[in-house]
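Notes to self after the Tuesday call (sharing in case useful).
The group wants a holo model before anyone commits to mutagenesis around the pocket. I volunteered. Ligand is coenzyme A. Logging inputs and output together so the record is complete.
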Amino acid sequence: MLFNVRGITGDDVNDLLDIDIKCFDYAWTPAEWSQICKTHAIAVGTYFGTPVGFGVCLRIGTDVELRKVAVKAPYRRRNLGRKLYNACVRFAIENHCTRMFAVVPESLIYPGSECIGSWLRKLGFRAQKPFIKDCFRMYGQSEDGVKFSQLLDRNSA
Ligand SMILES: CC(C)(COP(=O)(O)OP(=O)(O)OC[C@H]1O[C@@H](n2cnc3c(N)ncnc32)[C@H](O)[C@@H]1OP(=O)(O)O)[C@@H](O)C(=O)NCCC(=O)NCCS
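Result:
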């Protein structure tokens, strides 16, 4: 299969760091990644076996936070992001969670080339009010976050 989604292995961490840096202005540091690997559920997206994307989520009670989904630019718009999101939904349902949420920087929710709000809405998320004050730090500046959430049921995966 061209694109595949699988669980994380011990060899993936450097690839995930690299994808993170290429996809986000707020990439996690190596120290943060080593902590994330111990505490979060992680799906790895591959193209002919090479990691090109990931989905990272965290169970919080009966919620699951979609912390990050990333697909390297050359591989986008070929459904890998949706597959990674679906892997996170399966994780949520297997763990009897009923809601998934994501918090994204305010600047990425308005129409534009990287409008993550549109992508989240396409997957069934809806934005919630109010914005969360100062929850991102980008280019040395604080930015507010917007929480998107959706209810899950057995048919979501
Ligand atoms: C967001 C991201 C993961 C999407 O990955 P992708 O592999 O291109 O997504 P898919 O191909 O699975 O797209 C699923 C659907 O969303 C649409 N879509 C994808 N990116 C979109 C965007 N930026 N804006 C609007 N719609 C988008 C696709 O057209 C597709 O719709 P369709 O089913 O009607 O054809 C990728 O663009 C990315 O890594 N962005 C940078 C990191 C980021 O901001 N992540 C999200 C915040 S956690």
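Two things stood out.
Helices lie at 13-23, 30-39, 80-94, 116-122.
The chain has one domain: 3-151.
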